Structure formats: structure tokens, C-alpha cells
Amino acid sequence: MDRISILGDTIDYTKELLERIKSLQQEIEAGSNELNMAHIFNEVKPNEILVRKTPKFEVERRNVDTRIEICCSGKQGLLLSTLTTLEALGLEIEQCVISCFNDFAMQASCSEDLKQRTLLSCEDIKQTLFRNAGYAGRCL
């Protein structure tokens, strides 16, 4: 995603949150003893939830250069464990962009550590990062 798209999504999400806050404040002011939280989720489309939770792991290699793109649900410590995993695979990050707005997103350009010359395939790297993020099974 480019910066303009991210900014647009941020503005939309902020507006949505402000509307939810306003709605809850109106319920409180109306004297409701029990807040009806179900209406908060009525507006969320099932596809929207699915899109936010669908993990994406892509790995491309050219000689000793590797491009990695990850987008998945965030969890505490995911960034650190991902960096540790890349280091263990013998990849040194040269450039990296990270976003933790809704989910965890990371785009990284890596080079192969010549001291740890491991010949892992793109699929091996992808599966290792997939398991590191807490997903069981195999990434498609």
C-alpha cells in the first residue's frame, strides 16, 4: 500500500471509531443500565473481518537478495521474533518498513549473510515465517 492509501484508511477507521464512541456516550446519557454492545458489530461486514485476518506471506529471491512481505494479525513480540527468525535464516535486513495499525505488516529487503551461506528456498523461508507468526499448518 502506498502512503496515501494508508492515510485514507486511517482517516476512515478513525471516523468509524469516533461514531462508535458517540453512540456509546448517547446510550450512557439515556440512562441505559446495560450497554447493548451488539450494535457495534452489526455494521461490520463479515468480508471485512476476513480481509483483516487473512495472512499474507510472500518471499522473492534473486541471487543473494531477498524481498519479504508479511501481513497478518498482530501479536505481542511478533516483530522481535520475526527479526530473530530472519537472522537465524542467515538474512540481514537492509531496508524495512513496518506497520502495526490494524494488523502487523512488514516489507523488508534482505541480503544473505555470507558467513551463514544457507541455501533455503523461498518456500522454506515463507513457511518458517508463517509458523513464527503463530499459524499452524502450511501457508498457501
Automatic annotation (TrEMBL):
<keyword id="KW-0238">DNA-binding</keyword>
<keyword id="KW-0539">Nucleus</keyword>
<feature type="domain" description="Plant bHLH transcription factor ACT-like">
    <location>
        <begin position="59"/>
        <end position="130"/>
    </location>
</feature>
<dbReference type="InterPro" id="IPR054502">
    <property type="entry name" value="bHLH-TF_ACT-like_plant"/>
</dbReference>
<protein>
    <recommendedName>
        <fullName>Plant bHLH transcription factor ACT-like domain-containing protein</fullName>
    </recommendedName>
</protein>
<dbReference type="InterPro" id="IPR051358">
    <property type="entry name" value="TF_AMS/ICE1/BHLH6-like"/>
</dbReference>
<dbReference type="Pfam" id="PF22754">
    <property type="entry name" value="bHLH-TF_ACT-like_plant"/>
</dbReference>
